[in-house]
């Protein structure tokens, strides 16, 4: 049962009704642990408002009573940003009942929906009107658009379409004191003051509750061309990326990289996958073009890759000859998270670097990690096209908690110091949450951190929104 004060519980019940409350321990359990099972907390109650008005009522009550609130969408985050702490005093506010698509406007290329709509449902709704919503993640069948916005999620199509921030035009947000900012404007141009939309996107629930959004749609691609390439080193892939951009322009949608150890891990731990190339290579890339015109796309990709083979930028190429082969390529890429969970305990580094700095970073980081531990297992993969690497260190599955904690602190400092030296970011697309909160304080300047704290204090003076996360 909830340990909330009975009067507070009564007020929350009046706001959301029986269907909006989860009080029993068994019912609350799925909301109290993140999907990676890295963070587990205890919530006093789970509140599931059905609409913006109910959300506003809940926040007004929590603001008045100084009750801390953790907003949660599909609970698919990678950094513990939507998990309550262990105090039992925090309320989890789940947006999953706010799941309506309010409007689709194909002439304006926009879709307006509530925060609890699954990403896959948004993609399907766009397709029904011959449009395309390009945000694509491995968790798209279970993550919500509210969570995507709160963390400014990335995914496989950032290279062409941008992060979630670039895919949103307007927001509706319930502020910590229960007021509602009605910012659902479907406009490409609006110079009427501060850009409040961008303030809430990426704020990880620390400034308010995103309840709805206007999203940008794009023309639906009718043709795709996909290839898998093998290269001798990461420098060769960077060169190939530059060539493909020059040859193919905005048709280049994805350029996914993985090292040989990453591919080997997937082949060992994911069913029904096989190596796309006949020989082993130090680095691999999965490349995809897409276009609204169906003619000549495959020839364009093949011509560019032939030049890369002739110049030595790549060593081997397999161009997909069918939809099934394309799916097989993508299954390999999408299996990396599953493979890591099965093979060991990953110390994750979700980093962003200038593309020109990636090769030098990879060499320096590997040398430094091997100097610290000659047996270290480095799993290096990610979205090379937009400079986002998942540069992970894999420990044995049976590693004791104290061993994992010590290794995490040691390897984080090595990797993140090198990222900072290259003017990179220690959080590219997964958010800061609990996982990187202390690291963020180490790398943010005093001025930048002070500005963030002032914004937080201005909007959330009672400090109730997602305490212990981000800042």
Automatic annotation (TrEMBL):
The FAD-binding PCMH-type domain, residue ranges: 39-220
Keywords for this protein: FAD, Flavoprotein, Plasmid
Alphabetized PROSITE patterns for the sequence: FAD_PCMH
Keyword Flavoprotein tagged: yes
SUPFAM superfamilies: FAD-binding/transporter-associated domain-like, FAD-linked oxidases, C-terminal domain
Statement: the UniProt record of this protein carries the keyword Flavoprotein: yes
Organism domain of life: Bacteria
Family: Belongs to the FAD-binding oxidoreductase/transferase type 4 family.
Name by which UniProt lists this protein: FAD-binding oxidoreductase
Organism name: Comamonas endophytica
Lineage: Bacteria, Pseudomonadati, Pseudomonadota, Betaproteobacteria, Burkholderiales
């Amino acid at each position: 049962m909830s340990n909330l004060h009975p009067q507070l519980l009564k007020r929350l019940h009046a706001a959301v009704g029986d269907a909006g409350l989860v009080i029993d321990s068994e019912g609350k359990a799925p909301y109290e642990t993140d999907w990676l099972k890295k963070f587990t907390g205890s919530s006093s109650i789970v509140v599931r408002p059905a609409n913006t008005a109910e959300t506003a009522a809940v926040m007004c009550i929590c603001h008045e009573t100084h009750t801390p609130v953790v907003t949660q969408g599909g609970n698919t985050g990678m950094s513990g940003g939507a998990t309550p702490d262990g105090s039992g005093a925090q309320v989890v506010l789940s947006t999953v009942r706010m799941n309506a698509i309010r409007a689709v406007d194909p002439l304006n290329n926009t879709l307006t929906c509530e925060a609890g709509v699954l990403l896959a449902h948004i993609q399907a709704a766009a397709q029904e009107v011959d449009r395309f919503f390009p945000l694509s993640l491995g968790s798209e069948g279970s993550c919500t658009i509210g969570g995507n916005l709160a963390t400014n999620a990335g995914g496989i199509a950032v290279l062409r379409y941008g992060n979630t921030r670039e895919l949103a035009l307007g927001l509706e947000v319930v502020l910590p004191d229960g007021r509602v900012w009605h910012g659902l404007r479907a406009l490409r141009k609006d110079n009427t003051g501060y850009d409040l939309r961008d303030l809430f996107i990426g704020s990880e629930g620390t400034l308010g509750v995103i309840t709805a959004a206007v999203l940008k749609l794009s023309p639906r691609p009718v043709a795709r061309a996909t290839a898998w390439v093998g290269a001798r080193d990461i420098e060769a892939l960077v060169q190939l990326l530059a060539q493909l951009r020059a040859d193919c322009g905005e048709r280049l949608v994805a350029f996914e990289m993985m090292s040989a150890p990453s591919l080997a891990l997937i082949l060992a731990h994911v069913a029904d996958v096989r190596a796309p190339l006949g020989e082993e290579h130090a680095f691999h890339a999965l490349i995809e073009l897409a276009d609204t015109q169906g003619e000549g796309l495959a020839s364009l990709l093949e011509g560019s890759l032939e030049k890369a083979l002739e110049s030595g930028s790549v060593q081997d190429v397999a161009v997909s000859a069918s939809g099934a082969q394309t799916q097989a390529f993508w299954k390999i890429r999408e299996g990396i998270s599953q493979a890591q969970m099965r093979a060991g305990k990953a110390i994750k580094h979700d980093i962003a670097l200038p593309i020109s700095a990636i090769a030098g970073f990879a060499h320096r980081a590997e040398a430094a990690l091997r100097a610290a531990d000659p047996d270290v297992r480095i799993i290096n993969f990610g979205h090379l096209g937009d400079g986002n690497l998942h540069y992970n260190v894999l420990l044995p599955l049976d590693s004791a908690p104290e061993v994992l904690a010590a290794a995490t602190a040691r390897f984080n400092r090595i990797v993140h110091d090198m990222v900072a030296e290259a003017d990179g970011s220690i959080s590219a697309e997964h958010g800061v949450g609990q996982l990187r909160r202390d690291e963020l304080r180490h790398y943010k300047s005093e001025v930048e951190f002070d500005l963030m704290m002032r914004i937080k204090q201005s909007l959330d003076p009672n400090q109730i929104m997602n305490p212990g996360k981000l800042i």
